[in-house]
Design a protein that fits this description.
By secondary structure, the chain is α+β, with helices and mostly antiparallel strands. It is built from 13 helices and ten strands. A hairpin with a 5-residue loop joins β7 and β8. It starts with 5 loop residues before the first helix and ends with a helix. About 30% of the residues are buried. Bound molecules: 3,4-dihydroxyphenylalanine (DAH). 3,4-dihydroxyphenylalanine binds next to β9 and β10. 3,4-dihydroxyphenylalanine (DAH) binds next to β9 and β10.
Length: about 350
């Protein structure tokens, strides 16, 4: 039997190599294929080495065929390799994908009911041209009491059982208290900016109270102050009525009674008519004491360097915490200062 020529054997080899290549489906397999066929010690190289044993004519014939075959194998290899890379990547993407636009559920919290109502109060007063003022929570004895016409042995001091921070000095400007009322902002603002003045100061105040459903040693107030030429009680009355109608509703009834506060003269207590549904489902109503107010005392104006013969003013102060409780029908103040999100989130 006649031996097969190199060219013929190469032909058979090429076909089997190509079908082996088509079977490769992973990077490992195709790398192994390369080493065994196209690499330095591969089968193609071995066939090439046989060229040396041939006559020049046979060499030319077989050599050309081997080169063409190598080209074909190499390009088939490159195509298959590309295919495998793509398939590998696709498989990776299918299992490892990540949606970068996905919303991760987060607990975003909510606005505290005190802040909701504070904002509403601020909006009402800003519409009437008021400034929103701030004052220190650690205040001098002078700003918290003396300048507000509450001198050292005045009984009104006992009504506000106070947290003293330092009480060693004879000079009330050197003793410190946690402010018992936002009225300190009246003094700070008047001393700094003088008249005309139109401001409210919402803020935290502190009193040495035993805690129960309606009292806490920390609570919030809103102070109001208007000082200008020709300010009278009717301005105060109109302002309070506008505020309560904006915050509650148009037919909110308001009542003014005489009351005593050392920093106003005359002083007033303002009540509002409160309608509610009782435990039996019956509609009920009663007068609720809502705020203290009055015409700014001449001593206060003088403490702030103003002349009571030139300017006059009105002031008021109410409990923001109390207002929030009324607005939402919250019966226990401790809910508001607790840390239960499920309670606090109901109002946002
Ligand atoms: N500062 C008073 C308190 O805490 C409230 C108050 C009453 C403020 C009358 C005022 C006012 O400005 O005129 O009880």
């Amino acid at each position: 039997m006649q031996m097969k020529t190199l060219r013929e054997r190469a032909q058979v080899y090429a076909e089997s190599a190509l079908s082996e290549l088509r079977e490769c489906s992973s990077t490992t397999q195709i790398e192994a294929f390369y080493a065994s066929h196209l690499g330095k010690k591969g089968q193609l190289k071995a066939l090439r080495n046989e060229l040396k044993t041939l006559t020049p004519d046979e060499k030319r014939d077989a050599g050309g065929a081997l080169s063409a075959m190598q080209k074909e194998l190499e390009s088939a290899f490159a195509a298959q390799q590309k295919e495998i890379k793509k398939a590998t990547l696709d498989a990776q993407l299918a299992t490892e994908w990540l949606d970068v636009t996905q919303q991760v559920p987060r607990n975003t919290g909510s606005i505290h009911p005190l802040n909701i109502v504070q904002k509403q109060v601020e909006d009402v007063f800003m519409q009437m041209g008021y400034t929103i003022a701030d004052g220190p929570e650690i205040e001098t004895e002078w700003h918290n009491f003396d300048a507000l016409n509450v001198p050292q042995h005045h009984p009104a001091r006992d009504m506000q059982d106070t947290f003293w921070v330092g009480r060693d000095s004879q000079n009330p400007l050197e003793n410190y208290v946690l402010r018992t009322q936002t009225s300190n902002a009246q003094i700070r603002m008047l001393k700094e900016h003088g008249a005309p003045m139109r401001m409210i100061c919402p803020g935290r105040v502190f009193r040495n109270e035993a805690t129960d459903a309606t009292h806490d040693s920390v609570f919030y107030q809103v102070e109001g102050l208007v000082v200008d030429r020709g300010i009278s009680l009717s301005h105060l009355k109109g302002t309070v009525e506008v505020m309560l109608r904006e915050l509650f509703n148009d037919d909110t009834k308001v009542r003014f009674r005489p009351g005593f506060f050392p920093f106003v003269e005359p002083g007033l207590e303002v009540d509002m008519w409160w309608e509610y549904t009782d435990k039996k489902g019956q509609k009920q109503g009663k007068w609720l004491e809502f705020m203290g107010a009055g015409m700014v005392h001449s001593h206060v104006l003088e403490s702030c360097g103003l002349d009571p013969n030139e300017v006059s003013g009105f002031a008021f102060g109410f409990g923001l915490t109390r207002l929030v409780m009324m607005r939402y029908g919250i019966e226990d103040i401790r809910h508001l200062f607790g840390t239960k999100p499920r309670f606090l989130q109901q109002f946002a």
